[in-house]
UniProtKB/TrEMBL annotation:
Binding residues annotated for FMN, in chain numbering: A92, M93, T94, S122, N154, K215, T245, G295, V296, R297, A316, G317
Subcellular location(s) per record: Cytoplasm
Family: Belongs to the IPP isomerase type 2 family.
Protein name (record): Isopentenyl-diphosphate delta-isomerase
Entry GO MF terms: FMN binding; isopentenyl-diphosphate delta-isomerase activity; magnesium ion binding; NADPH binding; oxidoreductase activity
Gene it is expressed from: fni
Organism: Bifidobacterium magnum
Keywords: Cytoplasm, Flavoprotein, FMN, Isomerase, Isoprene biosynthesis, Magnesium, Metal-binding, NADP
Cited function: Involved in the biosynthesis of isoprenoids. Catalyzes the 1,3-allylic rearrangement of the homoallylic substrate isopentenyl (IPP) to its allylic isomer, dimethylallyl diphosphate (DMAPP).
Cofactors, names only: FMN; NADPH; Mg(2+)
UniProt-annotated binding residues for substrate: R33, K34, Q184
Pfam families per record: FMN_dh
InterPro entries linked to this entry: Aldolase_TIM (IPR013785), FMN-dep_DH (IPR000262), IPdP_isomerase (IPR011179)
Length: 378
């Protein structure tokens, strides 16, 4: 199958059997899926990151910043009592397989060194197989490496309240991410086929004693989604848009039965989803805080997401690619560079805090402008 300029190969069956993994137990199959996600995220990285969805966001330069590097405060305020040291963080990726233990260990050590928040990959495998010490450790290593940092637990939107609490407790997490991923599940060979999530999300928000972020995994959200989540009591929403890691491509490569490659460009890009969120929240008296993820690969992208209203920004694929292709020292240098560059850029814009970016002037161009016009946004 040809997607854009790449030929998409379907996954090799794990055991050479055309009925992939037919003899294997559920934990082994879930572990293989985790491996597949890492493998295919890497394989398609160049393809999915050849263009930037943030290109159509143009900050307006001010010749008179009236600020200095020393005046910049890098904290990000998500809600009362929840503050991050930095406005970007390591977004949810992995856990559950032996290779993910090492990845989580390296990411969490960097998170601790640079005071970045870090989200765990989905812990559903660990709460389902709670007697499996190896699986559990591939997640708990995140807290071991970063005992005092901000850690986000992660479960799917169908997860019962009891298991959601287990996930939080497992990591002594400060926050719980609940991911919504209908497009991924639909393409995933072994995925869910029904998506009645809102009521359960409301129960999770009520039933856990940490703040909850509801997060898309890369297809964005609409204005209506933001309104419905807000009505369900959600106070933190990550619009997680298209533009980076693409789970249609990843799951399609794992699907030996059906071809969903025409959904490759499905969903709202991260800037589009942020505009949807701005439109939804501007009329609310007590709006939820909006976060962003999807296609962020530079400090300027973080700034642009802030200009479109994000209070914090998650980065997954870009950091993973640096780690897997160049090693942990290169990722260490990258994070150091991002932090210093971000402060300088905020100074250039005359913004003393990340939240001030949302007040800066910005011009939309190209497809994003067209999208905003047709959706009556801004
Ligand atoms: C290998 C990999 C595995 C992922 N697994 C999860 C997951 O378990 N839970 C989740 O909420 N998001 C998961 N994501 C999605 C990311 O958190 C993020 O929302 C998405 O990749 C878009 O951001 P990016 O473009 O910076 O990669 C995963 C991403 C990658 C690259």
């Amino acid at each position: 199958m040809i997607i854009g300029d790449i030929v998409q190969e379907k996954a090799e069956p794990v055991d050479g059997n055309s009925q992939r993994g037919i003899h294997e137990d559920p934990a082994t199959l879930q572990q293989q899926r985790k491996r597949d996600h890492l493998t295919f995220a890497q394989r398609y990285y160049d393809h999915t990151h050849q263009d930037s969805v943030f290109r159509d966001v143009r900050p307006i330069h001010t010749a008179l910043p009236e600020s200095s590097v020393a005046a910049v405060d890098t904290h990000a305020d998500l809600m009362q009592g929840l503050q991050l040291e930095w406005p970007f963080y390591i977004e949810a990726m992995t856990g559950g397989s032996p290779e993910s233990l090492r990845i989580n260990e390296q990411l969490a050590a960097l998170a601790a060194k640079y005071q970045l928040a870090m989200a765990s990959g989905s812990q559903s495998i660990a709460v389902k197989h709670s007697d499996n010490a190896d699986i559990r450790r591939s997640f708990t290593v995140i807290r071991e490496q970063n005992p005092d940092g901000i850690v986000f637990a992660n479960v799917g939107a169908h997860t019962g309240v009891g298991r959601a609490r287990m996930a939080v407790e497992m990591l002594q997490a400060n926050v719980l991410e609940v991911h919504v991923n209908a497009a991924q599940e639909i393409v995933m060979p072994e995925g869910d086929r029904g998506f009645y999530w809102l009521e359960n999300i409301a129960s999770i928000v009520q039933g856990v004693d940490v703040p909850v972020i509801v997060k898309e995994v890369g297809f964005g959200m609409s204005r209506r989604d933001i309104e419905r989540l807000s009505e369900a009591g959600v106070r933190l929403i990550n619009v997680g848009g298209r533009g980076g890691t693409n789970f249609v491509l990843i799951e399609n490569a794992r699907n030996e039965d059906l071809d969903f490659s025409e959904l490759e460009t499905w969903g709202q890009s991260t800037p589009e989803a942020l505009l949807e969120a701005q439109a939804a929240t501007q009329k609310m008296t007590n709006p939820p805080a909006i976060l962003a993820t999807g296609g962020v690969r530079s400090p300027l992208d973080v700034i642009k997401a802030g200009m479109l209203g994000a209070c914090a920004v998650g980065v997954a694929g870009y950091f993973l690619n640096v780690l897997l292709s160049q090693g942990s020292n290169a990722l260490d240098e990258t994070v150091d560079c991002w932090q210093r560059t971000l402060v300088r850029m905020m100074t250039l814009l005359g913004c003393k805090s990340f939240s001030e970016l949302s007040q800066c002037d910005v011009v939309l161009t190209g497809n994003l402008l067209e999208y905003a016009k047709q959706r009556h946004l801004r």
